[in-house]
Amino acid sequence: MARRTTSNPSGSSPGPRNRTPQPLPRRSRTVGDFVKAFLAFVALLVLLVGVPGALAVQIGWPLPSGAPSTEWLQQEITVDTFINVLTVVVWLAWAQFTACVLVEMKAALSGVGLPNRVPGAGPSQLLARQLVAALLLVGAAAASFTPGLSQLGQQLEGNQRPAVAAAAQQTPGGLLAQQQAQTAASAAALAEQAADAAHAEGGGAHASEDATKFYRIQPPEGRHHDSLWEVAERHLGDGRRYKEIYQLNKDRAQPDGSKLSEASLIRPGWIMEMPGDARGGELVEMPDEAPKVSPDVQRQISDYARTSGGAQEQGRPGQQGGGSGAQDRDTAHISLPEQRPGQGHEQGGQGGQEHGAPAAGEGSGFGLPQALLGAPLLAAGLLGALGRRRRQALWQSALGAVGGRRGMEPPTPTGAAADAQDALLVGADPEGVRLLDLSLRGLAASLAGESRPLPTVYAAWMGGNGDLHLQLAQPSGRPPAPWQLGQDQTFWMLARADAERYEDVDTAAPYPGLVSLGTMDDSRLLLNLESVPGIVSLSGREQDRAGVFASVAAELATNGWSDRMTITLVGFGEDLTPLAPNRLRHLDGIEALVETMEAETRQRRGALGAAGHDSVLTGRTGPAQHTRWAPHLVLLAAEPSAEDAVKLAELAADASRLGIGYLVGTRSGDLPGAAWEMEITSEGKLLAPLLGLELDAQLLPVSQQRAVVELFTDADPEHDDDRPTPTPPFLVDISEQGRPAVYARLVGPYEIIGLDTPDGERSALLHEALALLLLHREGVHPRVLSSALWPRGVTDDVRDALVERLRAWLGADPDGTPRLAADATGRLKLAKSVVSDLDVLRSLYHEATQGRGAGSRAVRGRLLTDALVLVRGPLLAERPEGRYGWLTHEIIDAQLPLLVADIGLALSAFHLEKDRAEKAIEALDAALGSAPGDERLWHELLRATHATGDSDRLKRLAADLVARSGARGLPPRTEALLDELLPTWRSGVAAAG
Asked: Which of 263, 278, 293 is the endpoint of a domain?
């Protein structure tokens, strides 16, 4: 079904605007209405003012002037006594009627709907309701007042139900039975009061199954469009009950022949069946008793009433319906995409689950942070950034002294930091990030090839089946293949199978401002903060808002689908800068923010104008300009003052065109200039009713935020340089007495000595699990193990069965101790009798440089030589295709070459001390086989070759280095060394060229 859109004659870019709900169009008032209003005013004046005035003047105070005594009770009853008693009764009746008038007047003026019931009022409140209704019939408040307000006289004369309310209501309990015993003249009115009382006493309980109320979707008034959320808010008292209306009317034929398939897609003139407790003046209509509507509308409602049945039963109050929410009033609304046929969520087992989501049965055991487990894109970004930070620390430490330098082994996290790291390993979905990045860049490249601009994207949905749905601000034609149109013209969809066929393209990231907000029905929403035409406000408790802000900031700072961006943070309690110092910056206050963004806005407007682009999107197509149009996203956690909010609103008015986005926190939810409004609840729900969103929010609570920041801080090479040099996590006995029971060779082709090869298909899994445990002697969390072996998820019983097979395969030591056991934290650890060649390599180097070899030259030379012999190639060479994907999370691929280079450098220095240049060259050549990119090895090779005195050999080595460097040229340090050792090397290279 095509989406209803709003025309934009001004030509400006459309954008959602939250507005206070406006009253819907009302019928014009007649002379009779004014006569009724005047008579009602006179009647109210007489009853409210005339009655007490007459009583006070004619009768006076009816009660005794003093406390009653025994003599007073024994006095003779006179006519005055009867009059005083009747006067008291009249005063009480007047007080009750006055209370009824006040209650009805308050309800009418506030537009809340059905007023509160005054106890024991009965017909008195009904009379007050009719008089107030008639009085206000010519005013603006009557349109949203209780049923029957405009039917003064008709209801009293004809004993009929209100013409715009539902007819028959069957009310539970004995209240209705009592009312049915009353006179026929007041039966309908009392039945309505009984229903009201049942609704109020039941805490808002829903009406009976026989309710037949209807509502007709109103045409737009200005830029205000009707929505199911507003209908539910006005007539059911709670906008979140829109799902009941949706289920009552889903897939039923409307007067124009179309059907309601999404809660967000409704059209003027459609008929909606309402739950029985719906209230609200002229907006709810009966099929057969609606004299105020035309015969055509009566016929449409009657025809629609006959289409009820299955849909009505499915949508009974109390049942949770589907749908995605109410439509935003001004623009295309963020709605849940439809799944492709045959691609539902039935997938399971090892291959059908989004990586990072807990598999069936896993639950929340082992105490890992659930917020990180349920945030696969955020976890992948953090894990990738953490790996880069650790590699950076390793390479920076490589500039230190050879032997015993800090940084070879990064600090092992403990406590909350260790749990956070495990949660990142379990929850991360790097493949999902890779496919998202490839898909978006591929789309940008295809559009550029067709000379088409990038469409404005409000949101992206990542389905549980791996499909990607982009929701556009407005229809933009057919997408380039392999993209397809989705459920309507504003959805572009890419199947996961098509995304996997994409290859890297050299184009700028088109939508770097996408950030995860949460999930709805197994689909993950990424909102494009950069595209919002104004401010996005976030209301809720401060601690709840902080979790959303931290999650958004962390994902934007580390995501893998952007090139560069600036993220400005204001009002954050925790400093997130260590996550991405090049992207994140903190400002002290809102004043500094306004000053900064005014300058940024002016600069960007000028740059776009000079480049001839109307927005950053057009600047990102064509020749890639990866840095020029990078987004600037502002996250303001502190609530601005009204004056500052106005300034920010003015800056944000043109922000989407300039690539600037604003997310601003507010306690009240009423922020001037807010284009989209969201609310985070204490239950972790992210609500945006006017966008149709009710998400399970993605959060990064303060405790987990601190743990993640600790991981990055400990990995910072500039942090606490005075820390002692860390010892390798596991040192083995390298003497003859330390022969292990199980020995695995990982440096080169994978081999295991001391165990029989397992039979069957599980052999590869057992080998992989053992390799993971050998590379993590500190222990491996069971969920980390399962996510490494089954990236798309697996159930607990499958994981536990594999652990038991692995335990049985490894066996036990002679004293009966199992070689695989769990420590106090539940992490799986190997016994010391299970050793790898990498453990031996580390132990030999440590003993040579910091142990016995530090005081004995002969021991150092022997240990370094033995260590270099162990190097047979890269780690886990010839590993099976498609397995060991978890190695991408590790830094062993950087640690091992550095370790081999350190051994080669130490052995070379050992030989050069005795002028054995050839032995030094032999050691360096062996190390270069595993670490060919280490500049230090080439420098030492140049020095060793120079020590041989063979200038021709040195020239050949220099020419080889120049050839290897290619177009990039030699590094400056290498050039400086060649200038020192071979001053004529440049002319020799030129002659060879």
From this structure: 278
**Highest mean pLDDT pick, 149-153, 379-383, 645-649:** 379-383
Q: Which of 889, 905, 933 is the last residue of a domain?
A: 889
User: Which residues fall within 8 angstroms of residue 737, CB to CB, at 6 or more apart?
Assistant: none
Strand, coil or helix: 912 = helix
Whether residues 612 and 670 share a domain: the answer is: yes
Q: Compute the chain's Rg from CA coordinates.
A: 38
Does residue 441 sit in the same domain as residue 529? yes
**Residue 34, helix vs strand vs coil:** helix
In a domain, 90, yes or no: yes
648 and 747 inside one domain: no
287-296, 316-325, 692-701: the lowest-pLDDT one:
316-325
Q: What is the DSSP string of 764-817?
A: HHHHHHHHHHHT-TT-B-HHHHHHHH-TT---HHHHHHHHHHHHHHH-B-TTS-
Residue 805: which pLDDT band, with cuts at 50, 70 and 90?
very high
Stated as kind and residue range, the H or E segment containing 538 is strand 535-539
Q: What's the token pair of residue 787?
A: 């996510």
Whether residues 748 and 705 share a domain: the answer is no
Question: In terms of C-beta density within 10 A (0-12 exposed, 13-18 middle, 19 or more buried), how is residue 240 classed?
Answer: middle
Clarify whether residues 433 and 475 are in a common domain: yes
Nearest to 720 by CA among 817, 551, 913, 578: 578
Domain that holds residue 57: 36-61+84-110+127-132
SS3 state of residue 393: helix
Query: Starting at the edge strand that comes first in sequence, how are the strands of the sheet with 751-753 ordered?
Result: 751-753, 742-745, 834-836
In the chain, the number of structural domains is 4
Q: What is the pLDDT of residues 921-942, one digit of tens each?
A: 999 999 998 888 888 899 999 9
> Is residue 757 domain-resident?
yes
The answer on 611 and 476 residing in a single domain is yes
Number of H helices, E strands in the chain: 34, 22
| Strand 660-666 to 468-472 pairing | unpaired
Please check whether residues 463 and 550 belong to one and the same domain: yes
Closest CA to 187 of 166, 152, 159: 159
Q: Is residue 197 part of a domain?
A: no
The first and second tokens of residue 447, run together, are: 């559009």
* Cα–Cα distance, 906 to 912 (Å, whole number): 10
In tens, the pLDDT along 335-393 reads 777 755 444 433 333 333 344 433 333 333 456 888 999 999 999 999 999 988 888 88
Q: Tell me the one-letter amino acid at 900.
A: V
Q: Collapse the DSSP code of 524 into the 3-class scheme (helix H, G, I; strand E, B; otherwise coil) and give the result.
A: strand
Residues 486 and 585 in one domain: yes
d(CA 530, CA 477): 22
